[in-house]
Request: fold
Amino acid sequence: MKLPTDSEIRDLHAQYAPTREAFELVHGHCQIVCDLAEQLIVRNNLEVDVDLVRAGSLLHDIGVYRLDGSGYIRHGVLGHELLQELGFPEELCRFCSHHTGVGLSRDDVVRQNLPIPPGDYLAETAEEELVMYADKFHSKTTPPKFVTAAEYQTSVLRFGAAKAARFAGLVERYGVPELPSRI
Reply:
C-alpha cells in the first residue's frame, strides 16, 4: 500500500482548509496526535505499521474542513468519503471514520440518532486504536489544549460507564503520553 508523504498530507490540508486559521488548527492538531501516537509506539515497543499510524494520525481530522454546520460528529464520515474520492486505500480512510470518542457502535448511532449512516465505527486494528487513543489527549477547542487522562475519563463518562471503562482499558494498555506543558 502506497501511503502519502508528510508533505503530500500537508498539501491536502492546505487544499481543503477553508481558511488559514482552519488549516493551522486542524493540521496542527493532527501533528500533535501523530507525535503522541509515535511516543506511545516507542514507549510500549509496539509492533505496528508506524508509517500507517503516521499517515492516519496526520489525516484523521481532514473531514473537519467539509463540515457545513450540520454536526461535528459527521467529520469522521466526511473525511473517510474525501479520502475515498481521492483514491486512498480503505485502510487509510478508516482512520477518519473510526476515531470518534472511544468508538461508535451501530447501536450508539441509532440510539443517539446521530447524523451519520448507521454502522460500526470502532477501531479494529492496533493502528486505528492507537490513533483514536492519542487523539483523546488534545482538543481543537478555542484555544486548543491538551487533555489529561483524568479530564477525558470524566468527559467520556457522560456517554456511559461502558465508554469510560473502554477508555480506562486503553490507559492501562498504552499508558498516558507525556503531554507538553500547558500554555
Notes: The CA atoms of residues 73 and 114 lie 8 Å apart. The chain has a mean pLDDT of 96. DSSP finds nine helices and two strands in the chain. Strands lie at 138-139, 145-146.
